[in-house]
């Protein structure tokens, strides 16, 4: 019901806010989560729904300072989508820098909203900020095969958290399977 209302009566959040990206995606690099982000999330959100994603490894220029570019990308995004898993919570990763910068921005300036997507269950987190964020933010759970259909619960929950756009495709009636490989298999 919320998606129907937003599609027909919602105000486009992306007009005149000065942001370049709809979503900055934070995930553990060199893991299966990277395939999930690059093939599934990117494919559906950019191709099906027209969102402009910022993916650091794709959108950054070589030779820049990672921390400066990360902070700049987060400031130029409307949402921070955190795909967390056991790999994500390893200390010292770029993903944790992105997560902490997004939380700091949300708390101090309120210019970005943080969305948590649980790719795989995480045991009691070693990262204090993630534990705290999970208590105050909605966690959207990816359930593998059950979450692959664009009309499924996962995608509907995610779309509710994303910025309202004037041209969002309707979810009803779409039943194709989203693949995790480049060929869509």
TrEMBL record:
Q: Which residues form a coiled coil?
A: none
Task: Please provide the record's keywords in A-Z order.
Answer: Disulfide bond, Glycoprotein, Hydrolase, Immunoglobulin domain, Membrane, Receptor, Repeat, Signal, Transmembrane, Transmembrane helix
List the GO molecular function terms.
hydrolase activity
Cellular component terms per the entry's GO annotation? membrane
Q: How does the protein associate with the membrane?
A: Single-pass type I membrane protein
Q: Could you give a single Gene Ontology term from the biological process aspect?
A: signal transduction
Its main subcellular localisation, reduced to a broad class, is: membrane
Where does this one sit in the cell? Answer: Membrane
Q: Which residues form the signal peptide?
A: none
Asked if Repeat is a keyword of the record, the answer is yes
Taking every annotated instance into account, which residue ranges of this chain make up the domain TIR?
A: 19-162
InterPro entries named among the record's database cross-references: IL-1_rcpt_fam, TIR_dom, Toll_tir_struct_dom_sf
Report the family membership: Belongs to the interleukin-1 receptor family.
**Protein name per UniProt:** Interleukin-1 receptor accessory protein
Q: Which organism is it from?
A: Crotalus adamanteus
């Amino acid at each position: 019901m919320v998606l129907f209302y937003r599609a027909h009566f919602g105000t486009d959040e992306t007009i005149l806010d000065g942001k370049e990206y709809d979503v900055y995606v934070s995930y553990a690099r060199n893991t299966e989560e990277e395939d999930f982000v690059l093939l599934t999330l990117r494919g559906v959100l950019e191709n099906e729904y027209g969102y402009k994603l910022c993916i650091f490894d794709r959108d950054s220029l070589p030779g820049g300072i990672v921390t400066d570019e990360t902070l700049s990308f987060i400031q130029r995004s409307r949402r921070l989508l955190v795909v967390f898993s056991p790999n994500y919570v390893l200390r010292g990763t770029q993903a944790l820098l992105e997560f902490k910068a997004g939380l700091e921005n949300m708390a101090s300036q309120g210019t970005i909203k943080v969305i948590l997507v649980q790719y795989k269950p995480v045991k009691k987190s070693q990262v204090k900020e993630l534990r705290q964020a999970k208590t105050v933010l909605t966690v959207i759970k990816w359930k593998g095969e059950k979450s692959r259909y664009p009309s499924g619960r996962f995608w509907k929950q995610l779309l509710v958290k994303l910025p309202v756009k004037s041209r969002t495709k309707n979810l009803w009636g779409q039943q194709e399977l989203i693949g995790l490989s480049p060929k869509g298999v």
